[in-house]
């Protein structure tokens, strides 16, 4: 496998939830520095696929390579991969009993074995980058949804990951807060990070994605550059999906 | 009605306003307030009359030293006879501990209360130094203790199991190393984690005071221990050891990776929950010694203590499991995604939140077990309640059980109410820290 050339490689991945076949023969390669947006109707398996990439879900058939390492039951390989892959969730999942700063420094200190002072300086630099350094001493419950999601991005970045996964990062946000999170993601994309985003934000996809992947019923139906995908969809399923999404806008 | 409505709308503060709003808001609530107030007043006055106004605090003693309780018999029903407490409080509190040495259990009670009071200060629980050499001293200390005990155990196994009696020439040296080890461990703990160090040190001092045998203190066998120290020892050691065990069992029961551990934890919890505490105590006191090889004699109090620990742990484990289940799955996933190991995830993310959620039921169980320790009377251990019964068996005082039980209830309430107050304060503090 020439997995080292690509950041992420999924080969014939299959997964079932009981009798439900949620991922069907998924083949996907993401090059280093590439930004991929995954879209599709709900229940299409896009979240499951992205969660397989850092093994929050396990796949039953096929191979997944991340940064040249195959995901197996080998726990040491898993630790290495999780260190290199950051993840942002739909529901933020900040640790409510820790301050914003502690949320950001916990993993660098304990997983990367970074000295506390260094980890705090690093966390502050990322909190500045997501434009909320003044909230560092507060608890997640005291922040707005948009601020919490930006903290979640900063927390993931503090591990200095090579790859960032976003699982519908703006779906739980009020409309007026979506922009601040998307702006953060756009500036991250501009810095050259390898990104896989599950999102319905087509404007974001147009602006930063190198490639859009459309999933439906557990399989990748169509993929290509955003302009081609949105302006000249080839399959009926994508046409239908786009018409529903655009009407929704 | 309209008056009341007006009164409720007036935004005032102060005692009168509070009374108007909460107790006399409408004529129904006024009626209820008056009725309940009347009952409370009647009962209160009756109690004060009985407990203080008509109470008798001293009775004369005959030449042979027997209390003459005729005075008390006359006021029975109208006034309390606290003379029974004045006469028997040392027996009730300290049991059959040698009379001249009873300052030792008294100090033990004070130490326990001081330990509880100190532990309620949150700052005490902060981590101390992280210096490497202190860690090494503590580890070396623990190593020496383990070494001595391991050698002792080997010798016991050799003599009991194989009939080989080895006289250990190194015994005094090992004994000395053990003592040095204990000092090192306590010293290290005090610096590394002050609260744990204080607990270990205090409990060690308590044990030395009770059993004696060092620093010129006379040896007092466990059979002579009794009263409040027994209750405090059973409850404190019981819960202090049951709680960590309960956390491990609760985690084990939720384990997905290790089915054997999970089964073991389920069987343990269901087995213990399925039998009454009394039967576990009976097992510990009567059955357990039958299974031990001759020559090994584990003391009855220790056996009861272990029974209490195992029993309490099963109940606490279910409480802790409730907290673990209440945590959103996202917390585990976020910790996993950051690459935290299982124990880091559990220690930093899961347990701090899960335990916070279950403070009320946790303290509920603690209070329950504090009182349940009184069941050891069944197997002939003389705890506080048992000593009350013993005091009442003295012929002159036999008919004054009300006074003795009120006194015992007062002591139990002091400790239980203390726990409940502390838990409420803790909840408030933890919630306000999160801006909720």
Description of the structure:
The complex is a heterodimer of chains A (249) and B (436). Chain A has 249 residues and is of the alpha/beta class. Chain A is built from 9 helices and 10 strands. In chain A, strands 6-7-8-3-9-10 form a 6-stranded mixed β-sheet, sandwiched between helices. In chain A, strands 2-1-4-5 form a 4-stranded antiparallel β-sheet, covered by helices on one side. In chain A, helix 3 runs parallel beside helix 5 and helix 5 packs parallel to helix 6. In chain B, helix 6 packs antiparallel against helix 9, helix 10 packs across helix 16 (359-372) and helix 12 crosses helix 13 (300-326). The model of chain B has no long low-confidence stretch (mean pLDDT 85). The longest helix of chain B is centred in the last third of the chain and has 33 residues, at 401-433. Chain B is globular, with a radius of gyration of 27 Å.
Q: Kindly estimate the percentage of residues of chain A that lie in beta strands according to DSSP.
A: 25-35%
Alpha plus pi helix count of chain B: 18
Multimeric state: heterodimer
Helix content of chain B: over 70%
Instruction: Characterize the largest beta sheet of chain B: strand count, sense, and whether it forms a barrel.
Output: none
Backbone structural class of chain B: mainly alpha
- Listing every helix as H and every strand as E from the N terminus to the C terminus, the arrangement of chain B reads HHHHHHHHHHHHHHHHHH
Number of strands of chain A: 10
């Amino acid at each position: 496998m020439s997995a080292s050339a690509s950041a992420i490689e999924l080969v014939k991945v299959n997964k079932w939830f009981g009798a439900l076949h949620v991922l069907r023969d998924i083949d996907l390669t993401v090059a280093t520095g590439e930004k991929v947006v995954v879209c599709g109707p709900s229940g299409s398996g896009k979240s499951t696929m992205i969660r397989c990439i850092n093994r929050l879900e396990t796949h039953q058939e096929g191979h997944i390579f991340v940064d040249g390492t195959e995901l197996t039951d080998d726990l040491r390989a898993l630790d290495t991969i999780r260190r290199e892959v950051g993840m942002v969730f739909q529901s933020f999942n900040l640790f409510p009993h820790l301050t914003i700063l502690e949320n950001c420094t916990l993993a660098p200190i304990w997983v990367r074995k970074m000295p506390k002072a260094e980890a705090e300086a690093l966390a502050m630099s990322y909190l500045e980058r997501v434009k909320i350094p003044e909230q560092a001493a507060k608890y997640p419950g005291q922040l707005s949804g948009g601020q919490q999601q930006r903290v979640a991005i900063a927390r993931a970045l503090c591990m200095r990951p090579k790859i960032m996964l976003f699982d519908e990062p703006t779906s739980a946000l009020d409309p007026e807060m979506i922009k601040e999170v998307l702006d953060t993601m756009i500036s991250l994309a501009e810095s050259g990070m390898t990104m896989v985003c599950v999102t319905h934000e087509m404007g974001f996809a147009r602006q930063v994605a190198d490639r859009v992947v459309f999933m439906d019923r557990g399989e990748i139906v169509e993929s290509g550059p955003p302009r081609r995908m949105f302006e000249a969809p080839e399959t009926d399923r994508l046409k239908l999906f786009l018409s529903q999404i655009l009407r929704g806008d | 009605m309209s008056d009341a409505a007006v009164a409720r709308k007036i935004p005032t503060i102060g005692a009168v306003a509070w009374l108007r709003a909460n107790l006399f808001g409408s004529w129904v609530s006024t009626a209820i307030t008056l009725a309940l107030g009347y009952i409370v007043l009647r009962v209160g006055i009756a109690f004060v009359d009985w407990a203080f106004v008509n109470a008798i605090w001293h009775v004369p003693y005959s030449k042979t030293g027997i209390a003459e309780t005729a005075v008390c018999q006359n006021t029975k029903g109208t006034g309390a006879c606290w003379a029974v407490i004045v006469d028997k409080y040392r027996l009730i509190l300290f049991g059959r501990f040698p009379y001249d040495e009873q300052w030792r259990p008294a100090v033990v009670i004070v130490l326990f209360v001081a330990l509880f009071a100190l532990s309620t200060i949150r700052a005490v629980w902060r981590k101390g130094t992280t210096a490497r050499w202190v860690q090494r001293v503590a580890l070396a200390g623990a190593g020496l203790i383990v070494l001595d005990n391991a050698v002792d155990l080997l010798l016991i196994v050799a003599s009991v199991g194989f009939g080989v009696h080895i006289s250990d020439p190194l015994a005094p040296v090992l004994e000395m190393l053990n003592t040095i080890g204990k000092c090192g461990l306590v010293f290290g703990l005090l610096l590394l984690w002050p609260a744990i160090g204080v607990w270990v040190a205090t409990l060690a001092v308590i044990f030395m005071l009770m059993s004696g045998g060092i620093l010129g203190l006379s040896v007092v066998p466990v059979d002579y221990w009794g009263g409040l120290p027994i209750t405090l020892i059973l409850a404190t050691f019981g819960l202090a050891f049951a709680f960590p065990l309960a956390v491990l069992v609760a985690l084990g029961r939720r384990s997905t990776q290790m089915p054997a551990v999970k089964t073991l934890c389920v069987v343990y919890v269901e087995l213990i929950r399925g039998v009454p505490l009394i039967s576990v105590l009976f097992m510990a006191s009567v059955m357990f010694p039958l299974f031990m090889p001759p020559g090994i004699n584990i003391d009855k109090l220790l056996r009861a203590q272990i029974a209490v620990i195992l029993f309490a742990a099963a109940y606490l484990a279910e409480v802790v499991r409730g907290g673990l289940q209440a945590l959103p799955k996202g917390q585990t996933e976020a910790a996993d995604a950051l690459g935290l190991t299982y124990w880091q995830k559990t220690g930093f993310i899961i347990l701090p939140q899960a335990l916070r959620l279950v403070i009320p039921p946790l303290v509920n169980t603690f209070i329950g077990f504090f009182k349940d320790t009184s069941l050891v009377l069944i197997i002939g251990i003389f705890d506080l309640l048992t000593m009350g019964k013993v005091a009442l068996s003295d012929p002159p005082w036999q008919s004054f059980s009300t006074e003795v039980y009120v006194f015992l209830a007062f002591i139990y309430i002091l400790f239980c109410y203390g726990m409940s107050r502390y838990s409420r304060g803790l909840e408030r503090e933890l919630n306000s820290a999160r801006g909720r």
